[in-house]
Give the backbone structure.
Amino acid sequence: MVLLGGDAGLRLGEILALEWRDIELTSRRLTVQRSDWLGHVTVPKGERSRQLPMTRRLTAALKSTRHLRSDRVLCVPDGSAMTRDRVIKAVRGAQRVAGIDQGVHILRHTFCSHLAMKGAPARAIQEVAGHADLSTTQRYMHLSPAATEDAIRLLDGRETGIESVEKFGDILDTRETTSGSTCEGGV
């Protein structure tokens, strides 16, 4: 449960509705096609499915828990579908043991935050998280402290350590001109 939220960024309803046919263990891919909202299976939020790669850790966990009791990945021992309350209780129990007081959705936030901190582009995070709007993803981008430094390094060539400013050519004066000469007053 925890890895589906923390390593794949699935929402609670997507975790509940995940079926074994949505998982390709050999290619380490997962397809989010449905969501379970209070026992009603619908399309995921944003009304579109998404496909995402799985971490090795998540793949190993799914391989070790593979069962034939149900089409659903998460189910109770008799094969019936896992309920929201059971998942919430289990995750909160694990969080209590870990000394944190949060909820299930924090796993998804952690997933997006870790991607941002590792330097993943906002558009990639948007895709794997299933955010309909890029502005939703942007809330995580402040966690990428290297992003602004890397952007400036693109301008001065320090990303490789061997390029020099001269390699970028002449500087073009873009200040407004009055009767053919540049305005006085500097930059």
Q: What stands out?
A: The longest strand covers residues 29-32. Residues 162-170, 181-187 have pLDDT under 50 and may be disordered. Residues 84-98 form the longest helix (15 residues).
